[in-house]
TrEMBL record:
Occurrences of domain HAMP (ranges): 316-368
Database matches in Pfam families: Guanylate_cyc, HAMP
Source organism superkingdom: Bacteria
Record's keyword terms, sorted: Membrane, Transmembrane, Transmembrane helix
Taxonomic source organism: candidate division CSSED10-310 bacterium
Signal peptide: none
InterPro entries: A/G_cyclase, Adenylyl/Guanylyl_Cyclase_3/4, HAMP_dom, Nucleotide_cyclase
Record-annotated membrane-spanning stretches: 12-36, 296-314
Name of the protein this chain belongs to: Adenylate/guanylate cyclase domain-containing protein
PROSITE patterns reported in the protein's UniProt record: GUANYLATE_CYCLASE_2, HAMP
CDD domains reported for this sequence: CHD (cd07302), HAMP (cd06225)
Lineage, opening ranks: Bacteria, Bacteria division CSSED10-310
Domain Guanylate cyclase residues, every copy: 409-541
Length: 587
């Protein structure tokens, strides 16, 4: 009809724009939902993996503390059973063992009926007031059945102590019982440092005993009077119903209180049946997910606006890049972080594609970096001290070929009569023996701030004073050697029963200037020490007798009067033009 306006096509363009916007919104909502769901599960699994990593690490720390205390307690038993010693010599030697111990402060002696007899303490100290006057029948029976029996934690003057009891035997007859208690506050300090340094206070963790009383806490002083958690809603609802001391794997659960929502992981520490509780707020664990959702929402708005403008101008040209972005989002939601979106346009869609690619690259690099660092730390900690591992991870250590001059103490410890041992036992038995021996020797070396240079067959070479020059490194090396000799007395009892064999080692130590650094090629190098000091120590080890510690004059000059040393004579070593004075350390 005359006067009516014909359609100019704006209705179709409008419908196209609305259709594209609807497509974009629907695709974005769907992919965002799947991305959020998948990444939520991935982040939750990763968070629980970190919590389990903390649980396993602290389980190892606690186990090492218990093993060390038990080993030293068995060392006291050996001193008491040494018939060659007079009573005064036994008391002095036991007192020296306690004075130099890293964990023992005293040892109580009880007779066969569990009645208190006497105490071995450091000079000038007395038996702690919390020591029992008699041992219960249950404690004595437990000590007879177990090699080293931990008792329930006791708190005295705000200090937590973990008691231990062993049956004192001589010639397979029980002579009495040895009882001690070690201060476990260092565990609270270690837990606090781990949470602050490695996890930046993002985790909350503490340990409880079988009665659900806190025994280790990063803020021990503030909770010492409020240790029971039996009335805590978290324990009533989540932990107590599922707790089982025979299930070291532990449980993982979610929990909500007035402070927010939490991810909770628990793990039983074997042998003492302590329960490690690890908590993390969900808002912290899912922080990256929340940021991702905000970015998705922000770019979603930009994407819709851009689609409306470009849809009015280009129409069909937007279909292909939109689908490419949607597919890319799905790939990221499926954790295929290596996927990249290929969009040639330089508009908002291209910017979103670039952002998704950057997000995928960041997630891929972050995931790889976490896995690599965990693997590197685990591998390096088998050979190097924690200080040197941290220096390598933080790129503070020089990994180029070459080295520097530095004074270090070089220790060689060799298994005596290894060839007859190899001939009389199967290769599997020999390997098992060496692995167990080297594991303990490595722990002793690390505990005395040394590092493993290499294992040479049945011999271990260790260096002291590597990370930085230290005048105490000769004393640390000698102390490590003494601990090796003392520990063999404990280890040989086990090996005698298990393999009908006893091991002996010969130790030699020298101190002086070496070239220390990386030797090899750019693709395969080894961190080691080279010089006459190394050769001299290796030659001295050949003249050392079983369970004997030989040192040079340079080592002797750096030792304090606490070490017992005597001259061993003057020797001509192979490859040396001059004879050298050799001294023996009496453990």
């Amino acid at each position: 009809m005359k006067g009516e306006k014909k359609s100019t096509g704006l209705g179709i363009r409008f419908r196209l724009i609305m259709a594209m916007i609807l497509l974009i919104v629907v695709s974005l909502v769907i992919t965002s939902y799947f991305m959020a769901t998948v990444n939520k599960e991935a982040i939750e699994d990763q968070t629980k993996a970190y919590q389990i990593f903390l649980s396993e690490r602290f389980s190892d720390i606690t186990k090492d503390m218990i093993d060390e205390a038990c080993a030293e307690l068995y060392g006291i038993e050996m001193i008491l059973n040494d018939q060659r010693l007079t009573t005064d010599q036994t008391i002095r030697l036991a007192g020296y063992q306690i004075a130099t111990s890293l964990s023992l402060e005293f040892v109580n002696i009880y007779d066969v009926q569990g009645t208190y007899v006497d105490s071995l303490v450091q000079t000038g100290e007395t038996k702690p007031a919390f020591s029992p006057e008699t041992l219960t029948a249950a404690s004595r029976e437990k000590a007879r059945l177990q090699d080293c029996s931990p008792e329930p934690v006791t708190v005295y003057e705000s200090r937590p102590y973990l008691p231990f009891i062993i049956s004192w035997k001589a010639e397979d007859q029980i002579q009495g019982y040895l009882w001690t208690a070690i201060d476990i506050r260092p565990l609270s300090t270690k837990l606090d440092e781990t949470l602050r340094i490695q996890f930046e206070d993002k985790l909350k963790a503490y340990l409880v005993n079988e009665n659900f009383e806190i025994v280790v806490h990063p803020a021990w002083e503030s909770i010492v009077t409020q240790r029971s958690r039996k009335e805590d809603p978290l324990f009533i609802k989540n932990i107590i119903p599922a707790y089982s001391p025979k299930n070291p794997v532990g449980i993982s659960s979610d929990y909500s209180d007035e402070q927010g929502q939490w991810l909770v992981n628990t793990m039983v520490i074997p042998r003492i049946n302590w329960l490690l509780i690890v908590q993390q707020q969900r808002k912290i664990a899912y922080r990256t997910l929340f940021i991702m959702q905000q970015k998705i929402a922000l770019f979603g708005v930009l994407f819709v606006i851009g689609a409306a403008v470009i849809g009015a101008l280009l129409g069909r040209g937007l279909t292909r890049p939109i689908l490419a972005v949607a597919q890319g989002a799905r790939e990221l939601a499926a954790q295929k972080f290596s996927h990249r979106i290929k969009v040639n346009s330089r508009d908002e869609i291209g910017e979103m594609a670039e952002t998704f690619n950057y997000l995928g690259q960041s997630l891929e690099e972050y995931d790889a970096r976490i896995k690599q660092e965990i693997a590197i730390r685990s591998d390096l900690s088998r050979y190097l001290t924690p200080e040197l591992v941290d220096a390598i991870i933080e790129r503070k250590a020089n990994l180029n070929l070459g080295g520097r001059r530095q004074n270090v103490a070089v220790l060689f410890a060799d298994v005596v009569s290894f060839t007859p041992l190899s001939e009389s036992h199967s290769p599997e038995t020999v390997v098992a023996l060496l692995n167990e021996l080297f594991t303990i020797l490595t722990q002793i070396i690390f505990r005395n701030k040394g590092m493993i240079d290499k294992f040479i067959g049945d011999c271990v070479m260790a260096l002291f004073g590597v990370t930085e020059e230290d005048e105490n490194s000769p004393a640390q090396a000698v102390k490590a050697a003494e601990e090796m000799i003392r520990w063999l007395d404990v280890g040989n009892k086990k090996w005698k029963r298990q393999y009908n064999v006893e091991l002996q080692i010969a130790v030699a130590i020298h101190y002086g200037e070496v070239i220390i650094g990386n030797v090899g090629s750019e693709k395969r190098m080894e961190f080691t020490a080279i010089g006459d000091v190394v050769n001299t120590a290796a030659r001295m080890e050949k003249i050392a007798k079983p369970n004997q510690i030989l040192i040079t004059e340079t080592i002797r000059d750096h030792l304090s009067e606490h070490f017992s040393i005597k001259s061993h004579g003057r020797f001509a070593l192979r490859g040396k033009s001059q004879d050298i004075d050799v001294f023996e350390v009496i453990p």
